[in-house]
Specification:
This protein has about 425 residues and is mostly beta strands. The chain has 3 helices and 34 strands. Among the domains are: about 130 residues, Lipocalin (Beta Barrel), CATH 2.40.128; about 150 residues, Lipocalin.
């Protein structure tokens, strides 16, 4: 075989192997295992309104939920009719939406509308501004599960046909509802702290309640399933405590002193350690596998630094998160030591969304100042600051990653971004 023929053959093999690799679906809040980490490569670093936008699709209204990616479909929730301006409008006009879009083109395949159970929380004050579609749906590949706070949990097939719905409580909070549902075996687990001060497991096929854990207070984070050597633990951060449950029964395994305020960020984990950040400038690490009160025996470190809203990322021995809305922090996961804290930009605005890591890069989405792309390393390096100049609407949702594409949503549009 000649050198030219050999090179051509090798190129064909590379193209074939690359094209045959399956794209990674983004099937829950923060993707696979809920850690906000994707193993996809070749993602765009830079984009604008006219560069590296594969498509954009106008939404019927705003939302803070992340898009789901399943095969060639994109699923996203939003709301309309109320909650567009503070202290304005009539809640009777509030409508929620579930949309299915073609991943390749952005065209709407089907949509569902939902009338809310009223009264909802009033759209007033900073905490309420994430609106009425803040929970990211989840899927097992055959069904979609959507949570709309006091209006309930809904299950659909992939063509948009409703299979069941159920209530997890009727309470509201002036900050609204925002936890995303989580699948475990035959269970759908919902943090209904706002709706009923409970953590609830439903049969995913019928919506029937299987177990309920009570006294889940001031918790706006999505629970995390953490695989241990001998057992899988279901861990949630609530006011004052981190609590671990048996996900099969809802029985408590252990608890440790946690964040002494309301808790928005979800935990992350690596090996047998969970990492918790929260309001009141708190971060800590706890080893799993304990029993009872493990504050003295299993808490590895605790620091007076933390994130108020945005969840962290674990990557290669470091934690990455933002504090005070616009300061990027890198933290040594072994000691808790702050490696750097750097303002993203002189005018970086506020970040409520959780970051995503892919292709060695961290993507931080600001509410009004675009997306900041940072090198995932313990030395701060801003790689790009990307602004969509023709869209000045708010962005509170975390990105999704699939098929070498980044999916970003603002209150106005859903964008598919790629280096194509």
């Amino acid at each position: 075989m000649t050198r030219h023929a050999s090179s051509l053959f090798a190129a064909i093999i590379i193209v074939f192997v690359t094209s045959s690799l399956p794209a990674t679906d983004w099937m829950q809040f923060r993707g696979t295992r809920g850690l906000g980490v994707s193993h996809e490569t070749g993602l765009a670093t830079r984009w604008s309104s006219t560069e590296n936008i594969v498509w954009q699709s106008q939404m019927p209204g705003p939302g803070s939920s992340s898009p789901l990616i399943l095969h060639d479909r994109v699923f996203v929730t939003c709301y309309s009719g109320y909650g567009l301006e503070p202290n304005d409008g009539d809640q009777k006009n509030l409508t929620r939406h579930l949309l299915c879009l073609n991943q390749r083109t952005g065209d709407v395949v089907w949509r569902q509308k939902f009338a809310p159970k009223l009264p909802e929380h009033k759209y007033e004050g900073e905490g309420a501004y994430h609106g009425y579609a803040a929970s990211t749906p989840t899927t097992d590949g055959e069904r979609l599960y959507v949570f709309f706070g006091k209006s309930g949990v809904f299950c659909f097939d992939l063509e948009g046909n409703e299979l069941w719905q159920t209530s997890v409580g009727d309470q509201t909070h002036h900050w609204g509802s925002g936890c995303s549902p989580l699948l475990y075996r035959n269970l759908l687990i919902v943090n209904a702290s706002v709706e009923s001060d409970s953590l609830i497991a439903l049969d995913k096929m019928t919506g029937t309640e299987v177990w309920r854990a009570k006294e889940i207070s001031s918790s706006w984070n999505t629970p995390m399933l953490v695989p241990g050597t001998e057992r899988t633990e279901l861990i949630v951060s609530v006011k004052d405590h981190i609590i671990s449950f048996n996900p099969n029964t809802g029985s408590e395994l252990w608890r440790a002193e946690g964040v002494h305020r309301y808790v928005c960020p979800s935990i992350v984990y690596h090996d047998d350690v969970v990492y918790v950040v929260g309001g009141g400038h708190t971060s800590l690490a706890v080893r799993i596998g304990g029993s009872g009160d493990v504050t003295k025996s299993h808490v590895l470190w605790r620091l007076n630094r933390g994130s108020n809203v945005s969840s962290p990322i674990y990557y290669e021995g470091h934690l990455y998160w933002t504090r005070d809305g616009n300061i990027a922090c890198c933290q040594n996961s072994t000691t808790g030591e702050i490696v750097y804290q750097q303002r993203l930009h002189p005018d970086s605005g506020t970040i409520w969304s959780s970051p995503v890591l892919a292709d060695g890069k961290l993507y931080y989405v600001s509410q009004h100042k675009g997306t900041f792309v940072i090198a995932a390393q313990p030395d701060f390096e801003l790689l790009a600051h990307n602004v969509l100049n023709d869209d000045d609407s708010r962005a509170n949702a975390s990105p999704a990653v699939s098929n070498r594409r980044l999916f970003l949503r603002t209150d106005r549009n859903l964008y598919c971004v790629a280096s194509e």
